[in-house]
Model the fold of this input.
Amino acid sequence: MRILVTNDDGVHAEGIRALVTVAREFGEVKAVAPDRERSACGHAMTMRDPLRVTASRIEGVEAYAVSGLPVDCVNVGLTLAWPDGCDLVLSGINNGPNLGFDATYSGTVAGAMEGTINGVRSVAVSMAVFADGAPYHFETGATWLRENLTWLSTVDLPPLTFFNVNVPAIAYPELEGHRVVPMGQRVYKDRVERREDPWGRPYYWQGGVVVMRPDIPDTDVWAVSCGHVAVTPITLDWTDHATLARLR
Ligand code: MN
Done:
């Protein structure tokens, strides 16, 4: 199996090393990742600037650092690393959750989206850590993926569908298995904070308080809060077919 590994935390991130280590057990791996952290860039792509590519190694495998975003990395990867195509795109392991609407902001998920658009089976993997400074437990994500990558990469899926996986940031023996669940609710309130620089000029810091709804059962947020790995199939056909039919 020919595997392209990418991420949005950058080529030097701990999570991509964990992902490469698992991926190489399943086939030939080439990694193409941003040259620095690019989290929360969504499905953006670079159009007005050149992409500089630097050859590197991650855990001994062929790797490239790209002066761009995850989407750029997948497209560079399919041109430079795997010009004849590949069988699987793996994106991650992200150093934070991509639950609910986070998927729309996520560069990690965007890497899987771009793989899907290119007709390649794609999986995004994130560690759902919720406290600042808490351990990411990338080894838990790696171990779970080792046990589950075969079905994730071979199960029958429609052409526009990929997997978004969120692994609780806990020790592997504490995991309660996995659940296949829809996107849940995880939003931010008090999103933009006004502060002042040393000269009294205002600036704004975006972040806010996360509001999660782990109480809504059978969602990704619920699953992770209960210690389950959340596996969410996502389709790039954003059309609301039920509403389409009703309006017609
Ligand atoms: Mn990230």
